[in-house]
Amino acid sequence: MGIRLSRLPSLAGWVFVGVLAIVSSHAQSGDTAARSDFLFSEIFGEELSTNELLFGEARELWEKLSEDGDAKATYYLSFLYWGGLGGVQRDQATALRLIENSAHAGYATAQGALANMYEHGVTVKKDESLAVEWWIRAAANGDWIAQSRLERAYTLGELGLPVDAQQAERWRESRENRGE
What we know:
The chain is an all-alpha fold and 180 residues long. It has helices at residues 24-28, 32-43, 52-67, 71-83, 92-104, 108-120, 128-140, 144-156, 165-177; strands at 3-4, 47-48.
């Protein structure tokens, strides 16, 4: 039996961090990226895994891929530090650094996570202008949650943005064109 994800330290709005659905056969075929995604989905599925072998394999793989510049693996690794999982000491400063590295490398999900952190002041000082900057980067890189957030912000005049129906429509169309 796993640990309910609600028992993890609050990520203040990281509900948009989705679990990737990767076909297991690809993950077993030697495709390192697919194996990385598979491990993430196995560990952070509906319930948090308590399988230390999975954590060990994931940590080893994500550290190697992160060192090789893999932005997604760097982001995945941040979860271990954020929650003190997989034999790592809980360290939000390290988790933040990993998220920032992943975001700067162009990983849209990390960009959205960083935007959310700045919007809500999680581990960083609340800063709406930086939140908007990261929401825009994530949305431009195809993150549908960031596109939704910008649509809402422009519709309601949130995050220091003006009410702007054209911008709201732009981000709604971007999201819809993704099929989300």
